Amino acid sequence: VVPSRRSFAAPSAALTEMRLLLSLLVGLAACEDWADSPALTKMWETTSSSDLDGLIQVLAQGGRDMAHARSADGRGPLFWAYEYKNSDVLALLTHLEVDETAEDADGKRPSEFFPDGEEELADFGAKASARSEDMAELLKDREDEIATYYESADDGMDEPEMAEGGVDEIDYADDEDDEDEDEDEEASGATAAHKAKLEELRARARKDEI
Fold it and tell me: Which of 60, 98, 58 is CA-nearest to residue 78?
């Protein structure tokens, strides 16, 4: 007996329904991690205003996992990078392996928010790829600066040497002032170097656009 065409259709329909249900469950699980936060607000502000240094500061202080965070609508830094045509942010997020296939609450992927055509999108992606290593270096530099700052803060003052008779003759107030000045100079120098490198990359980007 040859099975009817209908008997073959039933398992296919059931399989499709199971896949749809599984997809829905995965989506619901992802939504549990979607939430607005001050950090995400700051990341939106820095991305939309092309404040690369500000975004790097958020990631360096809050941790690289922040790059994967999603707001209540399911969107995050990668979505905003495309929406505001910020190739530097896209370069940084590409280095951090943020998911390009992620979907927001409406089922849209990050690249769908790019406001221009396919050709411009391809150029945008190529420009970001070319800058990925530079952005990665900027983030690493800032992370190192912050780590050095906290390490120096944890070290505190050196143990004072005791004068004859066991009397401490060190002026602690002067010593603390000197230490604060040293730390300020180190932090200022590191920040200046970071900003100089950032300006160099921006100048290079402007040259590429000409």
Answer: 98
Query: Token pair for residue 122?
Result: 């391809």
pLDDT number for residue 182: 56
For 72-97, write each residue's pLDDT tens digit: 999 999 999 999 999 999 999 999 99
Give the number of other Cβ atoms within 10 Å of residue 68's Cβ.
16
- Contacting residues for 118 by C-beta, under 8 A, at least 6 apart: none
Q: Please, which residues have CB within 8 angstroms of residue 180's CB and are 6 or more apart in sequence?
A: none
| pTM to 2 decimal places | 0.65
H/E run at residue 183: helix 172-209
Count of other CB atoms within 10 angstroms of residue 45? 14
